[in-house]
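User
New here, explain this?
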Amino acid sequence: MSDWVYHLPVGWMSTVVLAITALITWLIYATVMTLAVQQRARAFKGVTPALLSPLGIVFGLLVAFLSAQVWNDAQRAASEVSREASALRTVDLLASSFPKDLQTRLHTLLREYVTQAVQEEWPAMAGQGATLALAPAPLTEALRLSLATVFDTEGQRVAQREIAAALEQALDARRQRIIISRSSINWVKWAGLIGVAVVNLLAIAFVHCDNKAAAVTAMGLFATAAAISVVLIASHARPFTGQISVGPGLLQEIIR
C-alpha cells in the first residue's frame, strides 16, 4: 500500500479504500456477467456455493492475523513511550535532591530532549526515517553530568544511582520506540489479503451469475466488509503515522 495512504485522516482513508474497492468490485461483476453466456454460464454455475464458506474463513483468518500484528505494535509503541516518560519523570523528581545549579542544568537538558523528540524524532518516525545512529545529546549529557558529580551525602549518592538507572531506561525506551516505528505490513501481506478478497468476489459472482440482483447484493456486502477491514488495519499499521497514532503527549507533560 502506498505511503501517502497511511498519512490520510481516517475519513479520507475510508473514502479512498471504499472507492477503490467499489471500482474493483464493479470490474469483477461486469467482467463475469459479460462472460456468463451459454457454456461459460453453465461452467460458472458449476462452482458450488459451499466454496464460499472456506474462502470467507481464509479471508477472516488473514484479517485476524494482520490485525493482531498491528494492534500488538500499537500497544508496544504506547508502552515504550509511557516507559520513557516515566523514566524522565523519575529524573525530574530526583534532581530536586541535587544542588540548585545541577538541578537547573538537568531540568534544562530534559526540556531540550523532549523538545527534540517532539519536533524532530516524531516527524521522522511518522515517515519511518528515525535512526539509532546518533544518541540524543541532551540525555547523554545528563547521564555524563550526573555520573561525573561527586556528592557528600548518602541520599544524594542514592539519587545519583537512581537517576543514572532512569536515564538508561529512557534511552532504552527511545531505542525501542524507534525500532517499533519501522514496523509495518509489507506488500506481500497486503497482496495476499487483497488477492483473497478478489477470489471471494469472483466466487460470489460465479455462484450468482444467473441472478444479477443477488450478485450485486452479495458482492456489495462482502466488498464493504473487506473495505472496512482494510481501513481498520491500515489506520493502525504504523504506530507513529496517521490520525490514529501514538503521540508525544506523555513526554510533553514532563516539561509543563
